[in-house]
Write a structure and sequence with these properties.
The complex is a heterodimer. Helix content of chain A is 71%, strand content 0%. Chain A has helices spanning 2-5, 7-53, 57-62, 76-83, 94-124, 131-142, 147-159, 168-175, 182-193, 197-205, 210-221, 223-239, 242-247, 255-259, 276-308. Classes of the chains: A mainly alpha, B mainly alpha.
């Protein structure tokens, strides 16, 4: 107390307060500086993708250094990329790759989600012999990396005659091996488990059949989990690359294969140089639908990914 | 009687999905192990052959490309995961401590979240590009900015150079998910701890070291386990950043998974009469064992380390 009466003591406290305030300001500006730098690093690739995608072919091929913005704004790159085809890749254009991808996406999403719901329902609600055993086996298999299965699955699909098949076989080879996802079953089972038993018994008393109960009570109540699964499935189909690229016939490959195509210079010069502006236009075309999905379904995507620990 | 009826009904729901799972998940699991131990497996006739001799394991450990692939995978795992986890933690703590601009920063940091890995990998490749002959194409962003003419990811790139770019990309790619999880964790920490620290005028660093990190330790170990497992399986990132078009990737840049995929469609036997498929299967099994060991070590460590 006496210290506060003392003028010099008063001064000391003031100085300490000032120091603390200075420290606080320094801390805050450090924090903001750090965040700005990191945010900048995160954004740069997106900017670069757009920048290069709008540069002219002349610019990417014939200048010594790249520039930070397109010298000659060339949106026609996108048109050329859309129409690009090469003989080695079956001579098909983006629209065909896109329709292939949509077919795979729709079938694997609709079918995969439907069967996941059935299995999750049986495991969460019905009583039958071997239920615990099946669930334990499923849980254990969830830990196994998919790379373990690739070689045997390739042999299976090729013995079924699906590999490189010019027709529906290519689609089957891309869809069927990954049709049922154990993780999605697990996710849905956990959601279904949270729905109180009493609802089920009440429905039973009213003479409601199991399937009707699933359709009219459980599915609507688990809506958000189901939407999450649908989105994960769609994104999985959109991003799938290596497996479809290995098994599908040239004419049935997906947009990711198109993305990885060479986009070489087809002018008469005959150099066959890679046109990185086309390449970047392709990456923009592949990235935009994903960003749109992210904007519209952010909530579902985040809950799905934070529960799974995997992307897509 | 009633029990049986219920049983039958349940199988109506389960039959088709379980059939598919058996054919494409359970059966291949066993089969891959069998292919790996019968060294003369023939993929054309789908016969295992008479040699149950594990020779494929010997073959891959004598294969310099497999050793390189494992080395590349290990570098990726043990550098990219700790660095991106640490950075993500710092970013999350920083984000959590500010008010103005927080939402904008959050959105920016979540942007790479749902992108296509191949696409952004290719963008990194373009950013670090370098023309093999001058004037064939422009130098990339990095070479232009720093006045270099180094081949980072092209055919003449050294291992440390292309690996550096792959690492930068992997770290960049791994950030958003980790930041999201850490922010969720930070918001669950009770304010009491920080208020108590504030009263004691505890320095920021001590708060981070003695309050935040211990309270986040379950999440940190969860992130580490899942990211380690993910990084062990990396292939597409290397392909996108340091590969040429399609699935063409220099053999010295293979990862363990790239090695497995390379053997698909490669029918026949190598110089030592070991089937390529057996070698592929053997490397898949090795990868699987490494991942399993890792998961258990991590689980045990995290059980001891998680304290609060």
């Amino acid at each position: 107390m006496i210290q506060y009466m003392n003028p010099s003591g008063h001064y000391r406290i003031n100085r300490k307060l000032k120091e603390q305030r200075a420290l606080f300001v320094a801390n805050k500006s450090m924090t903001y500086f750090f965040l700005f730098v990191m945010a900048f690093i995160v954004i740069v690739p997106f900017y670069w993708m757009l920048n290069v995608s709008f540069q002219s072919s002349n610019e990417v091929l014939n200048s010594l250094n790249t520039s930070l913005f397109p010298k000659e704004f060339s949106p026609q790159n996108y048109v050329s990329t859309f129409l690009y085809s090469s003989a080695q890749q079956g001579g098909i254009t983006f629209t065909r790759y896109l329709s292939n991808t949509l077919i795979v996406a729709v079938f694997s999403t609709v079918g995969g989600t439907f069967f996941s719901i059935l299995v999750a329902f049986a495991l969460a609600r019905l009583n039958f012999k071997g239920k615990e055993l099946i669930f334990t086996i499923l849980l254990a298999t969830m830990m196994i990396p998919g790379e373990m299965l690739i070689i045997s699955n390739y042999i299976t699909v090729s013995r079924l005659g699906w590999v490189n098949d010019d027709g529906v076989g290519s689609f089957l080879a891309m869809i069927i091996p990954f049709f049922i996802s154990i993780f999605h079953i697990y996710l849905l089972r956990q959601t279904f488990k949270q729905i109180p038993n009493e609802l089920y018994y009440a429905a039973k008393v009213d003479g409601c059949k199991d399937f009707k109960y699933l359709r009219t009570v459980m599915v609507p109540m688990a809506k958000s989990s189901i939407i999450t699964i649908v989105i994960l499935k769609l994104m999985g189909a959109w991003n799938a690359y290596i497996w479809p690229d290995i098994v599908a016939n040239e004419k049935y490959k997906l947009v990711t294969t198109w993305l990885r195509s060479s986009f070489t210079d087809q002018d008469a010069t005959g150099v066959g140089r890679v046109l990185i502006n086309y390449q970047m236009a392709a990456t923009v075309i592949v990235t935009v639908p994903l960003l749109l999905m992210f904007i519209f379904f952010r909530k579902y995507i985040m809950s799905g990914i934070s529960r799974s620990g995997v992307k897509g | 009687m009633l029990e049986n009826k219920i049983d039958r009904k349940a199988w109506f729901y389960l039959a088709f999905p379980l059939l598919l799972l058996s054919v494409f998940t359970f059966y291949p699991l066993v089969k891959t192990i069998l292919i790996s131990i019968f060294s003369q497996y023939n993929p054309m006739t789908d016969t295992f052959g008479a040699y149950l001799d594990l020779a494929a394991y010997g073959a891959i450990f004598n294969d310099p490309y497999f050793i390189t692939a494992i080395g590349n995978t290990m570098i990726l795992v043990f550098i990219s995961v700790p660095v991106s986890t640490g950075l993500a933690l710092l970013i999350a703590v920083a984000l959590n401590s500010i008010k103005p601009l927080q939402k904008i920063f959050q959105t920016i940091f979540f942007l790479p979240y749902v992108t296509n890995g191949l696409a952004i990998g290719m963008v990194f490749s373009v950013m670090f590009s370098h023309p093999l002959t001058d004037g064939l194409m422009a130098e990339g962003l990095i070479n232009t900015l720093f006045g270099l003419s180094r081949d980072w990811v092209g055919v003449t790139a050294t291992r440390s150079d292309w690996m550096f770019v792959v690492l930068v990309y992997s770290i960049w790619d791994g950030l958003p998910f980790k930041i999201l999880v850490f922010i969720g964790g930070l918001q669950n920490i009770s304010k009491q701890y920080y208020d108590a620290a504030k009263i004691d005028a505890t320095p920021k660093r001590r708060i981070l070291r003695h309050i935040t990190i211990p309270l986040l330790s379950p999440l940190i170990s969860y992130i580490l386990i899942t990211s380690f497992i993910g990084a062990f399986k990396s292939y597409e990132s290397v392909l996108a950043v340091a590969g040429s078009t399609g699935r063409l990737l220099d053999r010295n840049r293979w990862t363990a998974v790239a090695y497995v995929y390379d053997k698909i469609g490669n029918v026949g036997l190598d110089g030592n009469f070991v089937s390529y498929y057996s070698r592929g299967a053997a490397s898949a099994v090795i990868l699987f064992i490494i991942i399993l060991i890792f998961t258990f070590i991590n689980l045990n460590i995290s059980k001891k380390r998680v304290h609060y």
